[in-house]
Structure formats: C-alpha cells, structure tokens
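Methods — Computational structure assignment.
A single polypeptide chain was analysed. Its primary sequence is given first, followed by the predicted tertiary structure written as structure tokens.
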Amino acid sequence: MKINRYDDFTKLHEIVLGEVNYSPLYLIKEENDRNFMRHVLDQTKSSMEELEKIFKTFDVKVWRPEVFEHKSETRLGSPYVEVNSVYTSLTSFDNFLAIADTIVEMSPGHDPRTMFDYVQYQHIWKEKFNQGSRWLSMPRPSYNPNKTDQSEELSNFEPYGDSPSVLIVGDTVFLTERYIFNKLGMDWLKKEFPQFKFKIFQGTNGHLDSYFAIIRPGLALSGIAKDKLPKEFENWHIIEFNKENYNDVNLLSDYFQDDDYENTTLAVNIVSIDPDNIIMYKHVIDKNVEQVKKIEKQGVNVIPLELDVSRWLNTGLHCFCNALVRDGGYNNYF
C-alpha cells in the first residue's frame, strides 16, 4: 500500500514506530547518569513494545527502523562539522515527513547528526517506493559555519526544516512560525507540493505536535489558548492542557533528551488511531482528569500508555510514531 497521509486523525493503516538504541550511552561520561538513562531507555523500550501491541489490535501494520550501532571510534560529519553519532532511531517522526503519497527526508537546521538518520529507515522507504510512493529528500545541508546570514532565529543560507513542524489538515499545511523552518525550507516545500495551501501557525517556536493535536475536524487538543490559535480553529471545540512540571528533570545527554520545555506540551502530543480512538500517556490522563472527561464526552476512547519517564526524554507519543497510511484525502476541513 503506497503512502497516503493528509492528516493525523483519519483511520490509521500503517505506521513507523521508533526503536530504542542503547549504543550511544557511551556518550554519557558519568556512570550514575549513564545507569539512570539506561533505566529510562528500559522503560521506554517496554512501552514501545506495548504500543506496538495496541496498534496491532487495531490491525495497523507497524514498521520499525534498523538501529545504527554506535562505537566510540565512530566519526562522521560534513566537510565543515564533525559528529560522533547518527541521530536517534527512537523519534521516527523527527526527520521524515509523509505527505500526500510521498516520504520526504527532511533537513533540520540545528543538528548535524540528522545527516545520517536515513540509514536506519532506508529499508522502509525503499519498500514504500516499490509500492508506488514518491521518495524525495530536501537539499542536504552543509552546516557551514562560515556561510550564514547571522539570523538570530535560523540562517537562510540553505534550506532547513523538520517534520514535526508541519501540520497537515487535508488541503492545508500549517508550518511553525519561528526557529525550525527557514524561508528557503518553506519555499522548497511549497514548490514540491503546490497543491496545498500553506499557512503559518502563529505563536509557535517549535514542533507543532507539541502545541496542538486534532482528534477529528471540529475537535482538538491545544497547549495554546483558543483565542491565540489561527482563525481556522475559532469555531472548533478546543480542550486546553498545561505543560509538564520539569523541576526534577536534569539534562544528562543532549542525544537522548530534548530540553525545549517552553515549547512542549506533552499532553497534546498524542497518537490517533481513528477519530474514535486516541492513545495518551497514563500519567497525563491521571493528572488531567477533567480534560480527559471532556474528550470522552465527545465519544472518544482514550487508551492509556504507561511511560512516566517521558518527561526525562521530553518526547511525546506522536514523536515516536510516523503515520504513513491513513484514510484521509485532499479535503477542505475549514
């Protein structure tokens, strides 16, 4: 079945689910910190296996990446920057955008490690290509520190953008406002997919799936107050959530952890199986009883997944997953 993705809420048929990779633990020098992160990864691996079981209960085909085993002597890079790792195999959505009938290998602007992320997913994209999907790549960044425009947000020297900064709603594509997509990246995406209407999701500085999630047309979860959302959502039923408490969280590794707490609302970073079934962290459900009741009153079944260490990763369920095939099409939902 070739790729078909025009939204995050219609019935799901195929998805890529991330894999835990323990091998970069050597990058954490302190033994106690390394052991603690191993515990976090153990819990995450167990939850990923449980998540795969949930998907299969709903007859969803699950793809998994082939993790790159890191070694201390591994040396990678571009002509201008050296890196000692391939990016994580856990967050399968970060660097690959499924849009319409196409998979796009993205070019994030802030992390040169993403240059080689594709080696863990090629077997999937090759199979989808053989099934009739398109397979594209954004221009590969050089990460040349000597050729930037000194922008305080994101240099426009070469195209940059990553997948979670894109929210597809039928015939409309929302892009994050600042820091993640630059103008060249937006222009490239618009030229490759001229059939879509592109709009900026104002007030966003990071990944859109940690700001906003559509359960079905007319119903959404938001980490932004309704009166601050784009006008397209002014008549929708919006259920608002607050951010997590990170007071007890320490940054032990920038490989495994994301420290952008300001632009992350883990509660809205969910996975939808269909308009009647969504998956949400159990600790989020336990701490947001009233909001969850509001969701259930809309006829939605909220499926809990245990992963209370997710605050240490600062990674939501949607980040672990990359939906490739859904029922939805090129529709106008506004």
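Note: The first strand starts at residue 12 and ends at 17.
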